[in-house]
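My current task is to audit a protein record that another person submitted. I need someone to confirm that the token line plausibly describes how this chain folds. Take the sequence as given and treat only the tokens as open to question. This is what I was given:
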Amino acid sequence: MAFDKKLLEVLACPVCKGKLVLNEDSTQLVCRFDRLAYEIKDGIPVLIESKAISLSLDEVDATR
């Protein structure tokens, strides 16, 4: 199941309530401000802070 990109208009980072962006391979939603990535499983984003992946500055820059 693919992630519906229209959801990006209404989804927000659970930590800062900021905008999320889809990474290049469409497997994660990234919050650039908090440097967190949220996995997408079976087309459903897992927006749970404790399951988020911390990103380095280089990894965040790669999502631009």
The CA atoms of residues 3 and 44 lie 7 Å apart. The mean pLDDT is 93. Strands lie at 21-22, 28-31, 36-41, 44-45, 53-54.
